[in-house]
Design brief:
This protein is of the alpha+beta class and 115 residues long. The chain is 23% helix and 14% strand. The longest helix has 14 residues, at 50-63. Mean pLDDT is 78; it is low at 101-107.
Length: 115
Amino acid sequence: MGLSPGDNVGPVAILRCRLCATRPQWSCRHPTRGFLLRVDLARPKRVPTLAQELALDRAMAARSTCSRCSRRYDYCLPLRTVGSCDPCARGYEPAPGTSCRRDQRLNPRMWTALP
């Protein structure tokens, strides 16, 4: 509906999963539960400014760019654990002329050994 909770202090009701709905003494922490809020107290969602959208675009570009080979991928790289893309971490370099899409990244025949 494009609304945020606004002035709602708490849920009016909680939708619970089938297992926990028949046992009221249990607390339902499953991902299937949902909170029902009052629509008359809700407010419209805030629209991000252009500067906020630009900052998010730059952050996502930094997460999908390898720090070693500077290639940009279509997904977020494990920069905290590995520090680079998978071919750079394993000591390979993607073959020239191939794009860095995930399905090609998983095919080791497309890699060439680094000198």
